[in-house]
Amino acid sequence: MLTRTSRLVPGARRLDPGRLLHTGSQAPQSLAAHLDNPAPDDSPRAVSRTSEKDPVKTFSEACLMVRKPALELLHYLKNTNFAHPAVRYVLYGEKGTGKTLSLCHVIHFCAKQDWLILHVPDAHLWVKSCRGLLPSTYNKQRLDQPAEASIWLKNFKTTNERFLSQIKVQEKYVWNKRESTEKGSPLGEVVEQGITRVKNATDAVGVVLRELKGQSSLGGFRLLVAVDGVNALWGKTTLKREDKSLVAPEELALVHNLRKMVKNDWHGGTIVLTLSQTGSLFKPRKAYLPQELLGKEGFDALDPFIPILVSNYSPKEFESCIQYYLENSWLQHEKAHTEEGKKELLFLSNANPGQLERLCAHL
Amino acid sequence: MAAPCVFWGAAVSYRLFLGGRVSLALRQGVWKAAAAELQVGTGEKILRLRHTTGVTAKKNVAALRRETYTVDFIKKQIEEFNIGKRHLANMMGEDPETFTQEDIDRAIAYLFPSGLFEKQARPIMKHPEQIFPKQRAIQWGEDGRPFHFLFYTGKQSYYSLMHEAYGKLLDVEKRQNQLQAKGLFSEKTKTKDLIGSRWLIKEELEEMLVEKLSDQDYAQFIRLLERLLTVECSAEEEEFVQRFRRSVTVQSRKQLIEPLQYDGQGMAFSTSEGKRKSAKAEAIVYEHGSGRIKVNGIDYLLYFPVTQDREQLMFPFHFLDRLGKHDVTCTVSGGGRSSQAGAIRLAMAKALCSFVTEEEVEWMRQAGLLTADPRVRERKKPGQEGARRKFTWKKR
């Protein structure tokens, strides 16, 4: 699998063949943390706030398996015409087949290419279990989520340090009586404002999104919008107001802004989305098709898009995964080396990457 | 006060007789009479009342002990049974001469249908030998002298059997010595057909001898018989030993092997069913495939998210080393996730029998893959919280 990679992608990426990025099931948050530093040689483990189960810590390296869907996407990305409106790609597939990691692969690629990355690790986190919901300062009907917004801003800052000083704000924004951002000041200031004044964090996010959308068309940089679990934006929430009435997703400012971002009325970049059943609310376990997970509203909003199916491992991929585990001495069972052992693992996991990982964790 | 004293004395003597082992109907009658007399008597009522209660209580205890069936009684029962059998044959319109026990069972089941769960509580009509327990006739004659010379050992039939067996052994050895002396002794090793038969178990031997044995007695007897087998013996000794061997049922119970069927493309497949608790499954195993399994149209990885269930499905294939070689389609209904997995496993194992050699079928049977699990949910009993759990015991 690795040799195939190097042949197909000769020079452009300089992805060292030894580097496979592989993370545990708590992929989204931790991944956002390590890919914050797009430079290749750096060891993100020091920076990352990974969970203990994360193989990144255990293997002291981050490895990603290069697979067909990701390659396909990269191929499309390379051939995009940035004058056209942004194309939407939706990665969908059964649970545990590797959608999130494919997304991470794409992000890594774009980071290497010096794109500006707008990465939402898990949109589901924004629609459930939020503690502080405040009425929005900007629009009375909407609700703010200061905690999530500030976390995201911090991530954004570490991801795109370079661009924060480059991009200039196009309008004047007044935060409150004492603070305001002048026109023409770098975007970094807005981000700082959001981080320091948590109350205005959501609005800061909104500002950032609007600016980026407006300015990407000008061509100073390429914008990649990557959202994981995008079906959260159109599903239901579990958040309630003080009077115990349910909150619809539109009433959350973050969700509202993100929806605008995902609409393809801008150009100069791409939008890559992933569906996820794992964190979704009120959806049956076996649902994986875009129609089912997005619902009618979501589907209409995202239409047209290019769907990319991520499926279970092929026999070769399975082999290489097992080889990787064996090389790192992850599999301690005597039978793991043998053919029968591999067949057993294949049967039990049915070549599903998530299942395989969970199984191997026990061995 | 002579009269009460006399009665009291009489009661005492009768109580002494009660200790005797043999309880004849005669004696019972005498007691009854005695009880009646005691009741009739006047004066000293308290004393008399005590006597009556004492005697009647003891009489009941004696009556509850093993009822002895006399030989005449058994004979009468056998005659009645035979006549009844002929009547039954006539009723069913069959030939009385060739009316077997199975026919009788069927007829009784037909005439007296019973919904009772306990099979032994249903009406039966069997030969009196099988119903009345075997009892020993009285072992001594009128003069009180026992018939058998080993009566006073306590276990006369056992010891007489041992004596007989040992006598035979001595005979055989004597014969061998004679042959050796004559020089005609030849080392003939006869391989006796011991496979397929087993020694009588202790319970069966007890039943045969109508005597209680201890474990040591039984072991001693078997050892003696085995010793008899090691030396060469003639036909009658063989026959003597064979009396104490029972044949064991054929080892591999014939597993029903489903025939192969061929579908449109010429691919061979085999179908079978399986059950577990209340789950029923039907599996279709195709001969050539890549190890994909579909349950109710859904991939098995999605249908059984728990690894334990998938391990159950893996078991038959892993046992036969055919992990990635067959494709399976199955339907399952009822039960919970674990019992559905078990039902599918049984169905798949049965279906695989048709693709596999006889020996491997025997291995599967011994591994327990082809046996339906008989465990069902146990009923909750009244007075307890669950099937086994009792209510919390409070000391006060």
Automatic annotation (TrEMBL), chain A:
Subcellular location(s) of the protein: Mitochondrion
Pfam families tied to this protein: DAP3
Main subcellular location: mitochondrion
Residue numbers spanned by region Disordered: 1-54
Entry keyword Mitochondrion: yes
GO cellular component: mitochondrial small ribosomal subunit
One GO process term, biological-process aspect: apoptotic process
Top-level taxonomic group: Eukaryota
GO molecular function: structural constituent of ribosome
Keywords, in A-Z order: Mitochondrion, Ribonucleoprotein, Ribosomal protein, Transit peptide
InterPro entries noted in UniProt: P-loop_NTPase, Ribosomal_mS29, Ribosomal_mS29_met
SUPFAM superfamilies: P-loop containing nucleoside triphosphate hydrolases (SSF52540)
UniProt record similarity statement: Belongs to the mitochondrion-specific ribosomal protein mS29 family.
Protein name per its UniProtKB record: Small ribosomal subunit protein mS29
Organism: Panthera tigris altaica (Siberian tiger)
Automatic annotation (TrEMBL), chain B:
Gene Ontology terms, MF aspect: RNA binding; structural constituent of ribosome
Gene3D superfamilies in UniProt: 3.30.230.10
GO CC annotations, alphabetized: mitochondrial inner membrane; mitochondrial small ribosomal subunit; nucleolus
PROSITE patterns: RIBOSOMAL_S9
Region ranges (Disordered): 375-396
Keyword match Iron: no
Keywords: Mitochondrion, Ribonucleoprotein, Ribosomal protein, Transit peptide
Entry's localization field: Mitochondrion
InterPro entries according to UniProt: Ribosomal_Su5_D2-typ_SF, Ribosomal_uS9, Ribosomal_uS9_CS, Ribsml_uS5_D2-typ_fold_subgr
Superkingdom of source: Eukaryota
The keyword Protein biosynthesis is assigned to this record: no
Gene Ontology terms describing biological process: translation
Pfam families in alphabetical order: Ribosomal_S9 (PF00380)
The family this protein is said to belong to: Belongs to the universal ribosomal protein uS9 family.
Protein's recorded name: Small ribosomal subunit protein uS9m
Top-level taxonomy: Eukaryota, Metazoa, Chordata, Craniata, Vertebrata
